[in-house]
C-alpha cells in the first residue's frame, strides 16, 4: 500500500512539473532550449515621420527599429498604423505636393554604445507625399553605415515612385505600412597589388642586367642610320648647281 501511494505521488509531481514548464513556455514566448542572449543581443531606436501642410517638420512616432548587432548586423521593424486623422492629413499634403519625411537617430550598431544616439542628432530622408499615398504606404528604407558600424545615412523610396494622380481609398490602402528595411555597409575595394608590381619590376631589371645590349642609348643603337643619313644629305647638297649662274650665249 505504501509503495502504491509513493508511486502515485511521483506521478502527480511529474504532471505538475510538466504543467509548470508549459506555462513558463507560454508566458515568455521562448522555448526551453533557446538561449537568453538571442533576445538581448539587440536594441531598439525610434523611427519617426512628419507630413505637414505648412512644410514645417513636426516628427511623431511611426514605429521602432530593432537593431541586432554582430558581424552581420540585421534590423527589423515594428510600425504603428495610421490613424484616421493622419490618413486624411497625408492625402491633404499629397494634394498640395508636400513632402513626407522620416528620421532615425545616429547610432552605432554596437550594444555597448547604444545610448550615444541621444547626443549625435538624427538622419533624415524624404519623398513626395503623393508618391507615398499612391504607393499605398509601400516604401523601401535603407540604413547606410560606415566601416565601423556607425549609421551615416538613411534613404527612402516608394514602390512605385511616381505620382500619377491615382485615387486611393483611405480605409483600404492608407492604414498599414508595407516596408522593406535593410542595412547597407560599405564594400571594401581591392587593394593595390604592390607585391606583384615590385616582383615584375625586379624581373625586368634582371633581364636588362643580363642583356647589356638593351642598355645602349639611342645613338649607340642607330649610329649607322644617323651616319648614312648625314652622308646622303652631304651628297645631295653637293650635286645641286650653284645659284645665279650665267646664261649661254649663241
From TrEMBL:
Gene Ontology annotations for the cellular component aspect, listed alphabetically: EMC complex
Key words of the record: Endoplasmic reticulum, Membrane, Signal, Transmembrane, Transmembrane helix
Cellular localisation: Endoplasmic reticulum membrane
Superkingdom classification of source: Eukaryota
Membrane topology: Single-pass type I membrane protein
Secretion signal, residue range per the UniProt entry: 1-26
Major location category of this protein: endoplasmic reticulum
Family according to the record: Belongs to the EMC10 family.
Subunit-level organization: Component of the ER membrane protein complex (EMC).
Name of the molecule in the record: ER membrane protein complex subunit 10
Source organism of the structure: Cyprinodon variegatus
